[in-house]
Design a protein that fits this description.
477 residues, alpha/beta, Aspartate Aminotransferase, domain 2, Aspartate Aminotransferase, domain 1, 2 domains, seven-stranded mixed beta sheet, four-stranded antiparallel beta sheet, 16 helices, 11 strands, 43% helix, globular
């Protein structure tokens, strides 16, 4: 005889659980099938969102079907979809259905791989998936890491490790270096770690918006002469602005000579190491002390999943490990690496099973499918560049690299401020039209537009339609 559900136990009858689950899956599949025929971005003003969704917490129950209907009409229909094949803004998150099912399973079984004792097999899956990324990025045996929420926390974890290994607890005179194209999460993370803003030195970029090694060397020498203590260089493997990659091999040489920690923010671009073109521009990435990589970008996983790798995984437990009395049952060996407690490897003790979606996706599709999908993204940016050149009125600002191309609408006789206005108007015009979505940035002080073409479901027709629309909106702005 089935048990009567107890509302106070937050239970539904089995038949209601199944109905809810089937309805959710139907919603997801229908959304995936229809996505290419929908708008990539719908957004609300804050006032509209407040009017639509503000309410007090309901006191009594509601039918699950009614809640799903409200979710669909009020939330899903007013969303920017990073999975859309014509979402070219920032760095999209193309995702994939198998990965989404991995997240569903991870949540449904409520795995918590913070401690080996509570999730030994799940922790082993994470070890395996992390090691796949280590091998892709050509880091040595003995390197390792863990999955985190994304690139920001991956960078934070790496920089916290660098601070402990290189500086201990005395860092008032320490200096880190980055380029003027480095993701601002790194500046934020150093502030979180207690560094003053002036302890991060931004070094100019040279050709291709890449970190100038000679200028970096001069900055290090000047700081040493001034009695400061250089300790870390933060390089880029695929910048958000343009996809540029710093000269990693030369930077590795410099860091080795100067005894500096070498961190590479590869949150976006490091996954391109799967491809021949990616390996060609990232020579030296395996020489890093630490690396950030985001599988929810170019390995097509649902948010959230980032990864931090360090050259010697034994650096992590002394940086993050704690052994309070209430966890005494979880440490069964004097060697902290015998059974992995990922809670000692990073900031989180309670943490989700992020590895599952990546592990399932690679198992289902095979790593060659990911390699081909990344290659497609790189080729699509190159196709888009050719289309932009042919469109008329559009100039290339930075060539297609790692699936990003930047460009600018031009008009004879218009000054710089007028061209900035026109290009910003194009972003607004695209959002209003609904066919495609892209974002702007600034390069050398100028407003430019950018296409990030990493979605493997993007077609040549999607690219051509977007370029044609950009040219038309620009001509009318």
């Amino acid at each position: 005889m089935p048990l009567t559900p107890d509302p106070a136990a937050l239970e539904l009858p089995p038949e209601d659980m199944k109905a809810l689950g089937y309805r959710v899956i139907d919603m997801l599949v229908d959304h995936h099938i229809r996505l290419k025929d929908s708008h990539p971005a719908e957004t609300l003003s804050r006032a509209e969102a407040e009017a639509l969704l503000r309410e007090s917490a309901p006191v009594g129950p509601s039918a699950p079907e009614a809640v799903l209907e409200e979710l669909d009409t009020k939330v899903i229909q007013n969303t920017l979809f990073p999975t859309h094949p014509r979402h070219f803004g920032w760095i999209p998150g193309p995702s994939n259905f198998v990965g989404a099912m991995g997240d569903l399973i991870a949540s449904g079984f409520n795995f918590c791989p913070g401690l080996w004792l509570e999730a030994s097999a799940a922790s082993q899956v994470e070890l395996v998936a992390v090691d796949w990324l280590r091998e892709i990025c050509e880091m040595p045996e003995g390197a390792g890491g863990l999955f985190v929420s994304g690139g920001s926390v991956a960078n934070l974890t790496a920089l916290a490790t660098a601070r402990r290994v290189k500086l201990g607890f005395e860092f008032a005179d320490a200096v880190a270096y980055c380029s003027d194209q480095t993701h601002r999460s790194n500046a934020k993370n150093l502030r979180i770690l207690g560094f003053a803003p002036e302890q991060l030195v931004s070094v100019e970029t040279g050709d291709g918006l890449r970190l100038d090694v000679a200028a970096l060397g001069q900055a290090i020498a000047a700081d040493r002469a001034a009695g400061r203590r250089p300790f870390c260089v933060i390089a880029n493997a695929g910048t958000t602005n343009t996809g540029s990659v710093d000269p990693l091999d030369a930077l590795a040489d410099l860091c080795a000579a100067e005894d500096l920690w070498f961190h590479v923010d590869g949150a976006y671009g490091a996954a391109a190491m799967l491809t021949e073109k990616g390996r060609a521009v990232m020579k030296g990435i395996g020489r890093v002390d630490s690396l950030a990589i985001d599988p929810h970008k170019w390995m097509f996983q649902p948010y959230e999943i980032g990864c931090v790798l360090v050259r010697d995984v034994r650096w992590l437990p002394p940086t993050f490990g704690e052994q309070p009395e209430y966890l005494q049952d979880t440490h069964t060996d004097d060697d902290p690496l015998s059974e992995i407690n990922f809670g000692d490897y990073g900031v989180q003790l309670s943490r989700g099973f992020r590895a599952l979606k990546l592990w399932m996706s690679v198992k289902v599709f095979g790593i060659d499918a990911f390699r081909d999908a990344i290659d497609r993204g790189i080729s699509n940016a190159e196709r888009a560049e050719a289309m932009l050149r042919e469109a008329g009125g559009l100039e290339i600002v930075t060539h297609a690299q790692l699936a990003i191309v930047t460009f600018r609408y031009t008009r004879e006789g218009a000054d710089a401020s007028e061209l900035d206005r026109i290009n910003l108007a194009i972003v607004d015009g695209l959002l209003a039209d609904g066919y495609a979505f892209l974002t702007s940035t600034r390069i050398n002080g100028r407003v430019v537009l950018r296409l990030c073409t990493i979605n493997p479901r993007t077609t040549e027709a999607d690219l051509q339609g977007t370029v044609d629309l950009v040219a038309r909106i620009g001509s009318e702005a």
